[in-house]
Design a protein that fits this description.
The chain has 477 residues and is of the alpha+beta class. The chain is 34% helix and 25% strand. It starts with a helix and ends with a helix.
Length: 477
């Protein structure tokens, strides 16, 4: 009897020991196995040596000075091609360096640490009736990440983000701090904004703000053939237009819906200051968006559904219209599919020809496109890595891909055809996404990368700051 009890106790102890060991192996890889960092949508995962989160500038300086491995910088991790990591390197997570340092209400400027999200900035400035001038469509991103990719907006009055930046503070490879603007250290200013963290760490920025004003929505159905004419004859010539966007509807890519927002003296009929992702209306809108975009039979009716949703008169605060969250896009499931974006910048005079070619490639390859958004981007001749050196239309593709290597490799093949079309019509492709471009395509779109690498040698002579963008396309030298 005692032997049976002892044997049972031994088995129980053994089972507990094995369970604890398995648990550690599966869930505690931070301590006993390799560390992987992935983008927010789960498309790229990279093994790194360490992820470090500094809580002060002084702590960040110590990390930079004492780290001998390659350093990459991460914030919101919305870039999808490994731009925030380097194999077996160190990743610095900037999200705790997120202080609002100064707000000058009279000058309408704000100085913010790079780890702060745009949502935090919007919440802070809204009570002063101020608004961000330039940011991407969604406010979950960090300022540092947006600066590193030189994000653009829908506002016709401004170009990419660099147009609203007064100055940046950067930490160089030796841990020293340097301020750069258009007059001082301008080479660093021009290269670092849109430089993907390759020259140093953007620690803070001073941005120009604008007034938070009421805006009125107007919608107009259109066809692909109409887009350029409608913009040049009705949007670009109307001084009241603030925001512009045209949705081109899959899967035929013929019908579209133009949405513009205008200055107005009409009273608000939605007085909410900022959108709240936990509100009932937010959740309902998100569910409806997913249903309409992903249900085959309903998708055919989407042009009519979208128009009926937006046809009602709407006057809102500028901050409300600028406070969308990525959570509104879809339910993010990393397997077996994942969401991704692609973006192409085409000079306006060639936009229709490119759009026809884009439509042909997407239909021929049965690409699962959920949305195509066409936006205006003013010319940017300041950023060294400018993606829109001429006034352009941005074609933003929101895609759903199978999240395994063979599917991604296949998607890269048709993506390269789209890139060729963009280059043919004098355009470029955006760099924060899956890096499908060949070296030749990259060199043709961004010949100025050679100059960026030359500036990098001055400020980072030992090549401390690296990521997968540099690893793949740094062969230009």
């Amino acid at each position: 009897m005692n032997k049976t009890i002892n044997r049972s106790i031994t088995y129980i102890i053994l089972a507990v020991f094995i369970s604890i060991t398995l648990f550690c192996l599966l869930y505690s890889t931070k301590y006993i196995g390799p560390i992987f960092i992935a983008d927010k949508l789960g498309l790229t995962s990279i093994r790194v040596k360490q992820i470090i989160t500094p809580y002060s500038i002084e702590e960040l300086q110590e990390i930079v000075r004492n780290t001998h491995e390659p350093i990459a910088i991460a914030g919101g991790r919305y870039s999808q091609g490994g731009q925030m990591a380097y194999p077996d390197g160190v990743v610095i997570n900037m999200k705790k360096l997120n202080r609002i340092i100064d707000l000058n209400i009279d000058q309408k400027t704000i100085t913010v640490q790079a780890g702060a999200t745009w949502h935090k900035v919007q919440r802070y400035i809204d009570k002063y009736n101020l608004s961000v001038t330039v940011m991407q469509s969604y406010n979950n991103f960090t300022l540092g990440g947006s600066l590193s990719v030189n994000a653009h907006a829908r506002d016709l009055a401004y170009g990419p983000l660099i147009s609203s930046v007064q100055s940046i503070q950067m930490m160089l490879a030796d841990g020293s701090l340097i301020t750069a603007d258009r007059m001082h250290n301008s080479d660093l200013f021009n290269a670092a904004i849109g430089g993907y963290g390759l020259l140093g760490i953007i620690t803070q920025a001073t941005l120009q703000l604008t007034d938070n004003i009421p805006l009125e929505r107007k919608v107009q159905p259109c066809t692909l053939e109409d887009v350029t004419t409608l913009f040049t004859k009705t949007v670009a010539t109307d001084p009241s237009t603030v925001f512009y966007n045209t949705d081109l509807f899959p899967k035929q890519y013929e019908k579209c819906l133009m949405t513009t927002w205008h200055t107005t003296k009409k009273p608000l009929n939605n007085s909410t200051r900022l959108q709240q992702k936990n509100s009932p209306f937010y959740i309902i809108d998100r569910a409806m968006e997913v249903f309409v975009r992903r249900t085959p039979l309903v998708t055919k009716l989407r042009p009519n559904i979208e128009q009926s949703k937006r046809i009602a008169p709407l006057v809102v605060w500028r901050n409300y219209e600028m406070s969308y969250s990525v959570h509104q896009l879809a339910i993010h499931i990393h397997f077996p599919t994942a969401m991704t974006l692609q973006e192409y910048f085409i000079p306006i005079e060639h936009a229709y020809q490119f759009a026809k070619k884009l439509r042909s490639i997407l239909k021929k390859n049965w690409v699962n496109v959920l949305n195509v958004s066409i936006r205006h981007v003013a010319a940017d001749t300041t950023s060294l890595m400018s993606y829109a050196p001429r006034e352009s239309f941005a074609f933003v593709l929101y895609l759903n891909l199978f999240n395994w290597q063979a599917s991604i490799a296949r998607s890269c093949r048709w993506t390269q055809r789209i890139i060729n079309a963009a280059l043919h019509y004098g355009g470029k492709f955006y760099l924060p996404y899956i890096m499908c471009a060949t070296q030749q395509q990259f060199d043709r779109a961004y010949p100025q990368f050679k100059k960026l690498l030359a500036i990098k040698k001055v400020y980072d002579p030992k090549n401390k700051f690296r990521n997968m963008l540099l690893e793949k396309y740094g062969k230009t030298t």
